[in-house]
Specification:
This protein has 109 residues and is mainly α. It contains 5 helices and no strands. 78% of the residues lie in helices and 0% in strands. It is globular, with a radius of gyration of 14 Å.
Amino acid sequence: MFLLSSALLEVSARKTLKRLHGTHGVPARAAASEFPALSALVDQHAAAVRDILEMGVENSRAVAPTVLLAGYARGLLGDGLAPATPLDWRGADWLHLRLAAVCQLAKMA
């Protein structure tokens, strides 16, 4: 039973991260290619997310990284739309930078 529920969690997590990648990961990466400072901001957020998940989640090593990242992202998701253009990304708020960082980490997971 545990293996089945773990597999279902993984599938659900991958779906969440794929959707997030389309709304935040790809656009943020495109904007970062035009505005290098944005890349640095996303990297800083990625480091913070990694630290939160490694040190702030009990038994995090026993959970698949995609499940941790998707759970973290779901906790942040609201009704706010992602910035639409690279110029909009240049002024992106904390939430959207953090979600872009989750995408960056998920790509490495």
